[in-house]
């Protein structure tokens, strides 16, 4: 009976070891990777980078210190932020791409020739079929 009890204990120990191994692979390892990526991003921070703070404020880096970053969030409005409060560097947008996306929207708002609707004196659209109420009376 003593042999059977020790065999069951080693199986339980094996399950506990597997559980800790899975916990390490699922939680601890990815968290360490994110921390190292964050540290690398903070060390690569340069003046002129557009950043997003942990509070959700976008701004441009104007000065760097060992533990603080000066961020311009509006014209002539510079705030000091802890370096660890920088959530990320925003990707640079090209001016040409932004203009290209705006142009089609503006064109869609302007009516083109031949698409203007005509109305008669009562305000009804010409060429449109009368609704069920109008056809009765």
What would you say this structure looks like, in words?
The chain has a five-stranded antiparallel β-sheet with strand order 4-3-2-1-5, covered by helices on one side. The protein is rod-shaped and about 70 Å long. β1 and β2 form a beta hairpin. It has 137 residues and is α+β, with helices and mostly antiparallel strands.
Annotation keywords:
137 residues, 2 domains, 45% helix, disordered N terminus, 5 strands, SH3 type barrels, alpha+beta, 20% strand
How would you summarize the topology of this molecule?
Blueprint lengths: L1 H42 L6 E4 L4 E7 L3 E7 L2 E6 L3 E4 L5 H15 L22 H5 L1
Antiparallel strand pairs: 1-2, 1-5, 2-3, 3-4
Query: Helical stretch count?
Result: 3
> Which class of the largest domain in CATH terms?
Mainly Beta
In helices, the fraction of residues equals 40-55%
SS-derived structural category = alpha+beta
Query: What count of domains describes the coordinates?
Result: 2
Morphology call: rod-shaped
CATH topology of the largest domain: SH3 type barrels
Q: Which band does the percent of strand residues land in?
A: 15-25%
- For the terminal residues, how far apart are their CA atoms? 100 Å
Mean pLDDT reading = 76
Uncertain spans: 1-5, 103-110
Largest sheet: 5 strands, antiparallel
CATH architecture of the largest domain: Roll
The tally of beta strands, per DSSP, is 5
Q: Report Rg.
A: 32 Å
The strand line-up of the biggest sheet is 4-3-2-1-5
- Following the backbone from N to C, one meets helices and strands in this order, namely HEEEEEHH
